[in-house]
Amino acid sequence: MGITAYNEEKNITNAIKTLQREHKVPLVNIEKILVVSSGSTDRTNEKVLELMKTDPRIELIKEETREGKSSALNKILPIANGGDRILVLMSADVEPCEGCFQHLLEPFKDVKIGAVSCHPVPVNHLWSISELIGRMVWRLHHLVLLYERKLGSISQLSGELLAFRPGIVKKIPPHMINDDAFIAHEIIKAGYRLEYAEKAEVKIRTPSTIRELFNQRRRIATGHYQIEKLFSRRSSTFKIGNSLSSYFKSIIDGNGKSLKEEYLLTLGMVFGSVVEGLARILGKVDFNQKRLPIKWSMANSTKDLKKK
Asked: What b/e sequence results for 164-192 when a residue is b if at least 16 CB atoms lie within 10 Å of its CB, and e otherwise?
C-alpha cells in the first residue's frame, strides 16, 4: 500500500486509520503501508511517526524537497514490485468508504485484469459555481467509465485510488504529469485490461474557488496533451463527445437525482464548459512551450475532507 502526501496534516491520520480498519475485511491483507511525504512543511511527518509506534507495517519515506508525484511514486514502486502482491496507490487527501478495498480488489480474480481504479465522490456542497463544476466533472468521469465498462474497453484510471499487478510498471518518467494515465498505458501495453470498480467509492473534495479549479483543470489538460503526444492516444474522459453523450444518456435513462440537483448539475456543465475550454487552450499552450506542471500549486480548499 502506497500513500503520497504533501502537507496533509489534516487528512493523513484518517487516511491511514481507514486502511487499518479495512485490513479486517475479506480479500484485504495489507502487508506494508508506505507513506511518501514530499517536502512536507507541516505536521504530516509527525502524525505518521506517531502512528508508526503502534503499527509496524507503516513506513515513512521523507523527500527533503518536493519533486512531484511521479518522484514520490518511484520511491514506492521498487519496494512493491519486489513481491507478488497487488499494489494499491492512494492520495492522502481522499477517504475510502467502507468496503472500498474489497470492491477494488475483487476484479483481480480475473487474471486478465491488470489494474482497477476507484469511484471518486465529491463531498462538496453545491454552494458555489466552482463546486458545481467540480461535481459535474466527476459525474461525467463516472458516466464515461460506466459506458466504457459496458463496451468492455476501459482506457482510463482514477489516480485518487488505484490498484495494479506488480512488476508491470517499473518506473514513472519524472516529467510525467498525469501518472494515472501513464500507468493505464503501461497496463494495456502489457496485454491486460483495466476495470472500474463503481462500488469502490472514495470521498474527495473539489476546489471551492474558480482560480484553484481552473489551475487544476489546466494542469490536467496539459497532462492529457502530453500523453497524447507520447503514446498517440487520448484518454476517454478527455474526449468531449464521450462526456456529452454519456451525460445525456444518463438523463434519458433516469439516474435517480432530483430535478433540483439535475438543474444545478446542468448549470455546472454550462459554466464548466467555459472553464474547461479555456483550461484546455492554456494547457495546450503550456505543453507546446514545455511548461510542464510537475510540481503544481496545492489547491488548499481541497485539503480538509472533514470541513462542513
From this structure: bbeebbeebeeebbbbbbbbbbbbbeeeb
